[in-house]
Each structure stands twice: as structure tokens, then as C-alpha cells.
């Protein structure tokens, strides 16, 4: 799996993300991808070779291993990381689409831009970004649930009993380094939970910021409407409407006036 290529693609998402999104991306690569590549794969290795049952019945060990490990933790986490990081690529593709659309608009309108900033989360891009957060949190939560259901919790027992055919009776099976594997599994589970938490925080931040902006715009519109409906009028008639007389003038003078 080419993680370096995936990292180079997702690194471009940083400039289109909020602060919560950048923290999420850092957590994915530092606490999940690097741990997965550097440590987890070496801890698990080829687990089927190290799986031992106290019987020599042909096929019994393979059947018991398939029953206890329906899917390898390594492969499950690899699928989880692929699914979780894909929504970020949707956001990046939407931004690239906007940039291409803006470039065509500039050519047709002699330098006038369609978007002042194609990466700004407004209109359709805002909804795409919010959808990507929902998908990322949903995928992480789904894989945590799958892992919990497959292995009946986040635990690796030192001893597993198996009584499936072709085993002659109930046999005891053992996995190698169960404590070390359990520690790495819990680490990956906690990292996934923290990523879900960061996605929820980012969703609340985006929605809260959008609501605050709408309230501000509504308040400004109400102020403009109030000003238009209550325009200032002249409270005092013009001075030309008043006929001023001098009380010191005589009646004849008034008549002349």
C-alpha cells in the first residue's frame, strides 16, 4: 500500500481545512498511519504461522484460526484508513473543479473571476465539506463497531477453545504475543475515537459559524429595512412658509407690507 502517495494527496487538503481539520489530518498520519506502517504490521506479521493449537489433526489449526480471526486486524485497519481518508479527496476534487470553472470564466470574461477564492467554504463546497466530515466520522464509527462485533469486544484472549470439524474434540489454541497485540489494538481504537471526536467538533464549528453568519445578515437586513421604513423627514416646515412681521412697525407700515 503506497502511503506516501496517499499522504502527498491529502497534504493539499490542509489549506482547505479548518484548524480542527488540520489536527484531524495530523492525528491520522502520526497516530494511525505511521503506527500502522512502522509498528503494527511488525507486531502482527504473518499471524497464521504463529497460531498454535494442541492438536496435529490436519486442517484443524486452519479452521480454528479462520474462526477466531475472520479478518486480520491489519487488513481491517488498512480498509478503515482508506475509507476514512477518501472523503477528504472529495473536498479536494470539488476545489479543483471550482478552480477549473473559474479559469474558464476568466478567459471568457477578460480577467473577471467567478470565485474570489475557490477554496473558501461557501455554497456547494460548504455542503461538500460537511458531508465529508459526516462520512469520515461514520466510517470510523462503523469500523469500530465491526471490530467490536467480530471479536466480541476489544480484547485478545491468551487461550481460545475450538471444537469445529475436522478437530477431533475441543482443542486449545494460542496466539503469539496477545498482550502486545491488545495494546496496539486499544491504541488504534482510541485513535479512531479521537478522530471521531475531532470530526464532531469541526461539524459543530462549521454549523455554529454558519448560523452566526446568518443571524448577523438577518440583523443587518432588519436594520436596513427599519431605516427605509422610518426615513427622517423634516420635522419643521421651511422658513419660507413663515411670514415674519416686525411688531414695532405701525399699521400703515403693515398695510404697505
Automatic annotation (TrEMBL):
<protein>
    <recommendedName>
        <fullName>Gap junction protein</fullName>
    </recommendedName>
</protein>
<keyword id="KW-0965">Cell junction</keyword>
<feature type="transmembrane region" description="Helical">
    <location>
        <begin position="21"/>
        <end position="40"/>
    </location>
</feature>
<keyword id="KW-1003">Cell membrane</keyword>
<dbReference type="InterPro" id="IPR017990">
    <property type="entry name" value="Connexin_CS"/>
</dbReference>
<dbReference type="Pfam" id="PF00029">
    <property type="entry name" value="Connexin"/>
</dbReference>
<dbReference type="InterPro" id="IPR000500">
    <property type="entry name" value="Connexin"/>
</dbReference>
<comment type="function">
    <text>One gap junction consists of a cluster of closely packed pairs of transmembrane channels, the connexons, through which materials of low MW diffuse from one cell to a neighboring cell.</text>
</comment>
<dbReference type="GO" id="GO:0007267">
    <property type="term" value="P:cell-cell signaling"/>
</dbReference>
<feature type="domain" description="Connexin cysteine-rich">
    <location>
        <begin position="139"/>
        <end position="206"/>
    </location>
</feature>
<dbReference type="InterPro" id="IPR019570">
    <property type="entry name" value="Connexin_CCC"/>
</dbReference>
<comment type="subunit">
    <text>A connexon is composed of a hexamer of connexins.</text>
</comment>
<keyword id="KW-1133">Transmembrane helix</keyword>
<feature type="transmembrane region" description="Helical">
    <location>
        <begin position="126"/>
        <end position="148"/>
    </location>
</feature>
<keyword id="KW-0812">Transmembrane</keyword>
<feature type="region of interest" description="Disordered">
    <location>
        <begin position="237"/>
        <end position="257"/>
    </location>
</feature>
<feature type="transmembrane region" description="Helical">
    <location>
        <begin position="76"/>
        <end position="95"/>
    </location>
</feature>
<dbReference type="InterPro" id="IPR013092">
    <property type="entry name" value="Connexin_N"/>
</dbReference>
<keyword id="KW-0472">Membrane</keyword>
<feature type="transmembrane region" description="Helical">
    <location>
        <begin position="183"/>
        <end position="208"/>
    </location>
</feature>
<dbReference type="GO" id="GO:0005243">
    <property type="term" value="F:gap junction channel activity"/>
</dbReference>
<feature type="domain" description="Connexin N-terminal">
    <location>
        <begin position="42"/>
        <end position="75"/>
    </location>
</feature>
<dbReference type="InterPro" id="IPR038359">
    <property type="entry name" value="Connexin_N_sf"/>
</dbReference>
<comment type="similarity">
    <text>Belongs to the connexin family.</text>
</comment>
<keyword id="KW-0303">Gap junction</keyword>
<dbReference type="GO" id="GO:0005922">
    <property type="term" value="C:connexin complex"/>
</dbReference>
Amino acid at each position: 500500500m503506497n502511503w506516501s502517495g496517499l499522504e502527498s494527496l491529502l497534504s493539499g487538503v490542509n489549506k482547505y481545512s479548518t484548524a480542527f481539520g488540520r489536527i484531524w489530518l495530523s492525528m491520522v498520519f502520526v497516530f494511525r498511519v505511521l503506527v500502522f506502517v512502522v509498528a503494527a504490521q511488525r507486531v502482527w506479521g504473518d499471524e497464521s504461522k504463529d497460531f498454535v493449537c494442541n492438536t496435529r489433526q490436519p486442517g484443524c489449526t486452519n479452521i480454528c484460526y479462520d474462526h477466531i480471526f475472520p479478518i486480520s486486524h491489519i487488513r481491517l485497519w488498512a480498509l478503515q484508513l482508506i475509507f476514512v481518508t477518501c472523503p477528504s479527496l472529495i473536498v479536494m476534487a470539488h476545489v479543483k473543479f471550482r478552480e477549473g470553472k473559474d479559469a474558464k470564466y476568466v478567459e471568457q470574461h477578460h480577467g473577471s473571476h467567478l470565485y474570489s477564492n475557490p477554496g473558501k467554504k461557501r455554497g456547494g463546497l460548504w455542503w461538500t465539506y460537511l458531508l465529508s466530515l459526516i462520512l469520515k466520522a461514520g466510517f470510523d464509527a462503523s469500523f469500530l463497531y465491526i471490530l467490536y462485533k467480530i471479536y466480541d469486544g476489544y480484547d485478545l484472549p491468551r487461550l481460545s477453545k475450538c471444537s469445529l470439524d475436522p478437530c477431533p474434540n475441543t482443542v486449545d489454541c494460542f496466539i503469539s504475543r496477545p498482550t502486545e497485540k491488545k495494546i496496539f489494538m486499544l491504541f488504534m481504537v482510541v485513535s479512531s475515537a479521537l478522530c471521531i471526536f475531532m470530526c464532531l467538533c469541526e461539524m459543530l464549528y462549521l454549523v455554529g459559524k454558519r448560523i452566526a453568519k446568518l443571524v448577523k445578515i438577518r440583523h443587518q437586513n432588519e436594520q436596513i429595512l427599519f431605516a427605509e421604513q422610518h426615513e427622517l423627514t423634516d420635522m419643521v416646515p421651511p422658513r419660507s412658509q413663515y411670514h415674519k412681521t416686525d411688531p414695532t412697525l405701525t399699521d400703515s407700515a403693515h398695510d404697505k407690507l
